[in-house]
């Protein structure tokens, strides 16, 4: 083996997935015949610290961060999960009177992580309620799990969640929450990106990710991670389209 590839997984997934990602990482290492070190940052700030220090060679990034990585740091598109889109859920505590996101009013308190893609989509959903960013009292939390716990304790009127994270909560947690709105963009997804320093590994890494869905061993690993259909090739054109869509959401 040669090189040393640090593979960072965005902190958008439940801790229960960490073991699965370590198994996935071991398989990836074998398939590309390169030493791969898995990085699972605790939060977005820690992720950005790893990136700013140049410690990340391969990353599974959310679409907002992908914009920065591609446009400003030159990261290259590798793969994306098949038919698995990044949607978001606005939810409230089951004991509140809110039945729909349009019921939220100016001055409402919303728990939010540092997932900027989730925030952008959520703000678009709240346009029908007549709410803008400045109308909301934002309450930062470190994770989607923390947002759920805070909501259950009555610390806010609502919370923003990555839809996949919300749907993976256990039944005990979900029984105490009520979804008010879920996006249906069907355009944005987390993506695998490669730092340009590792261009010589691009073909091998693409082949490894795309081929995993045809391998019985890795198919089960992917299913455990919630990537049930595996990965497909991510083209430059698809990446640019997604980035343009993120820019539109910012406007």
From TrEMBL:
Pfam families: Phosphonate-bd
Highest taxon, organism lineage: Bacteria
Gene3D superfamilies tied to this protein: Periplasmic binding protein-like II
Protein name, entry field: Phosphate/phosphite/phosphonate ABC transporter, periplasmic binding protein
Organism of this sequence: Simonsiella muelleri ATCC 29453
């Amino acid at each position: 083996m040669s090189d040393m590839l640090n593979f960072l997984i965005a902190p958008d997934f439940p801790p229960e997935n960490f073991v699965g990602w370590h198994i996935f990482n071991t398989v990836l290492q074998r398939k590309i015949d390169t030493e791969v070190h898995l990085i699972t940052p605790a939060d977005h700030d820690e992720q950005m610290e790893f990136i700013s220090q140049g410690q990340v060679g391969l990353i599974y990034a959310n679409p907002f961060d992908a914009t920065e990585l591609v446009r400003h740091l030159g990261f290259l598109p590798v793969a994306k999960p098949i038919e698995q889109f990044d949607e978001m859920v606005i939810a409230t505590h089951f004991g509140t009177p809110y039945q729909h996101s349009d019921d939220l009013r100016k001055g409402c308190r919303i728990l939010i992580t540092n997932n900027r893609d989730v925030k952008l989509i959520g703000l678009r959903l709240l346009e029908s309620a007549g709410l803008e960013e400045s109308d909301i009292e934002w309450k930062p939390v470190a994770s989607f799990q923390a947002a759920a716990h805070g909501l259950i304790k009555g610390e806010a009127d609502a919370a923003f969640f990555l839809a996949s994270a919300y749907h993976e909560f256990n039944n005990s947690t979900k029984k105490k929450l009520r979804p008010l709105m879920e996006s249906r963009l069907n355009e944005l997804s987390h993506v695998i990106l490669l730092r340009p320093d590792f261009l010589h590994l691009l073909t091998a890494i693409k082949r490894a990710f795309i081929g995993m869905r045809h391998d019985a061993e890795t198919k089960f690993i992917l299913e455990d991670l919630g990537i049930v259909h595996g990965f497909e090739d991510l083209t430059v054109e698809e990446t640019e389209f997604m980035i343009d869509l993120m820019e539109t959401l910012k406007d």
